[in-house]
Amino acid sequence: MICLVYYTTLLAALITSMVSGLPNRRSMVVLDSRELPAHFATGGAPNPNTILNLKIALTAADRDSLEQALFDVSTPGNALYGQHLSFEEAKTFAGPNPDTIQAVTSWLNENGITNITTTGAFDDWLAFSVPISTANSLFEADFRLFTEIGGQTQLTRTLAYSIPADLQPHINLLHPSTDFVRVSKGPKFHIPVPASSSNNTARVLSTISSCNTAGVTPTCLQELYGIPNTKATQSSSTLAVSGFDNEWPQTADLKSFLTTFATDVASTTTWNLQTLDDGSDPQSAGDAGLEANLDTQYTIGVANGVPVIFISVGENNPDGMDGFLDIMNNINGQTSPPHVLTTSYGFDEPDITATQANQLCDAYMIAGTRGVSVLFASGDGGVSGSQSQSCDIFIPTFPSGCPFLTSVGATQGVSETAASFSAGGFSNIFLQPSYQTTAVASYLTALGTTNAGRFSTNGRGYPDVAAQGVNLEIVNGGATSTVDGTSCASPIFASVIALINDRLVAAGKSPLGFLNPLQVLYANPSALFDIITGDNPGCGTNGFPAKAGWDPVTGLGTPNFASFLAAAGV
C-alpha cells in the first residue's frame, strides 16, 4: 500500500513537471470576422501542409496623438500648421512600443515559431511562415480556398480568427486573413456625353474655345480651370502616380501625347520610375497600359515641369490588400516622400473588414503628417460602388471613405455637370470627420427623405472634390482614343495641387499636405467651381443629386486655380 501511494505520487509529480514545460493555452478572443462575400464561393479545404506567409500588424505607440498631429499640421491658424513630421517624428507615434514587440514575439516563440522578421516603415509588422494547419491552430481559424464567382481571383482566407486576449492591446490585425479584395480600375473607353446645361454662372464657359474639340486635353483644362502653363521650378516638389495590376506607361505614347495635346511641355519629358513588390515598367509594343498612360500623360501634361514619379507595384504583395498597404509603407518610410500621390484604383468597402480598413486608413493618416496630399479616384459605379453592379443598399467605395485623404469625383462637359458614373456616398465604417459635418448636414437637410434607408447618414461623405472625367484624349499603344472615369479626374486635380505646391516651396513655405481641413476646401468652398446639376444613378435609383455646396457626386466642386492659389497663401 505504501509502495502504491509512493508510485502514484511520483507519477503525478512527473506529469506536473511535463505539463509545466509546455506553454499554457491562453484565453482567446475573436479579433476579426465576417460573412462570406456574395462574389466569392468556397472552393474547399487546402492542403494543411501548404505554407502561409503571414504578417501581424502591431499597434502604434500613440495612434491618437498621431491623428492630432495630422490635424495640427493641416489646419490653417494652428500654431503647428505646415510643420510636417519627419520620418523619426512620425515613427515616435506610429511605431510600436518595445513591450508590444516583445509580447507578440514571445507568444510566437512559445508556439515554436522562430522564423520572424520585422517589416514595415516603422518596424510595425512581424512576418513569419507556417503551415495552414499551424495557422488554424494558432489563431483558431479555418483557412480555406475561395474562388471569385465569374472571375479569376483565388484566395486562401478565413472568415474569422482569434488572438490571446492579453495580446489584444498589441495586435491590430493579421494579413492575409479575412480580406477579399478585388481591385477595380478605370478608365473606360468613351461613352457619348448627353447634352446638358448648368446653372453654374461662375464662369463664362462659352468662351472656352480650346474645349470645343473632339475631347478634353491639357490645353482645355488649363483654360477651363485657369491652370497656368508656366513651367514649375522646384525639383523637390514631386507628384507620384500609383501603378497596379500590371499597368505600365509607355514613353513612346507619352511623347506622342505631349507632341499632339500638350505642346507647352517638352516632348522629351518623362517620369521617374520606382518599383516595389517586383514591379516593373516594360516598354514593348504590347505593354501599353490604358490606366498608367492616362495617369502619367495627364500629370506630366498638366503639371508642367513638376517631377512625376511612377510607382509600379508588382503582384508579389504580401499585405493582403493587393499592394495598397505596401505602397504606403514604402512612401511613409521615405526620408523625403512625394508631396502628392494620386491613385486611380480602388475597391468596394464591403470587400474588407473595418479592422483592415482602419489599418490602411491610418497609413494615409501617417502620409498626411509627412506632408503628402493623398488623392483617390472615387470610383465609377455611381452609388453602386467602384463599378456598376446590382444592389439594393448603396455600396460605398474604399479607400475614398477614409477621412484622411481627398476623394475625387468626375464631371463632364464644359458647362460641367456631374458625370453619371461618379461614385459617391457615405461610408459604413468611418464616421463624418469634423471638417465636413456642417457641409454634409446641409446636404442631408436639402436631400430630405430621398434614398432614406439606403445609406448611413452618419458616415464620412465622399467625394471631396471633382474634375473632368469624360472624353479625355489619350495615346495608348500608339493609337489616340478618348476615355471616361474618375480615374481621369484624380490625376487632373493632383496636378493642380502639385503646381500650387511648386509655388509654395519656391516661396519657402511647406507643401499643402492633407487637403481637407484647408481653407481652400471645406472651410472655403468658394475656391472651387460648384457643380449643381447631375446625379449618380445605381442600385435601381437615381442616386444622389448634385446640389449647391458639397454633394456626394462632385464634392465641393472643381478647381479654380487662381482662387485656390490665393487661399493657399501664395
Automatic annotation (TrEMBL):
Source organism superkingdom: Eukaryota
Secretion signal span: 1-21
Reaction equations catalysed: Release of an N-terminal tripeptide from a polypeptide
Gene Ontology BP term (one): proteolysis
Keywords, in A-Z order: Calcium, Hydrolase, Metal-binding, Protease, Serine protease, Signal, Zymogen
Record CDD domains: Peptidases_S53 (cd04056), Pro-peptidase_S53 (cd11377)
Cofactor entry: Ca(2+)
Protein EC: 3.4.14.10
Pfam families to which the protein is assigned, alphabetical: Peptidase_S8 (PF00082), Pro-kuma_activ (PF09286)
Positions annotated as active site in the UniProt record: 291 (charge relay system), 295 (charge relay system), 487 (charge relay system)
Broad class of enzyme this protein falls into: hydrolase
Residues given in the record as Ca(2+) binding sites: 530-531, 549, 551
Entry-linked InterPro entries: Peptidase_S8/S53_dom, Peptidase_S8/S53_dom_sf, S53_propep, Sedolisin_dom, Tripeptidyl-peptidase_I
Main location: secreted
Domain Peptidase S53 per the UniProt entry, residue ranges: 215-570
GO-annotated cellular components: extracellular region
Entry's cofactor comment: Binds 1 Ca(2+) ion per subunit.
Protein location: Secreted, Extracellular space
GO function terms (MF aspect): metal ion binding; serine-type endopeptidase activity; tripeptidyl-peptidase activity
Record's function text: Secreted tripeptidyl-peptidase which degrades proteins at acidic pHs and is involved in virulence.
Protein name, entry field: tripeptidyl-peptidase II
Taxonomic placement: Eukaryota, Fungi, Dikarya, Basidiomycota, Agaricomycotina
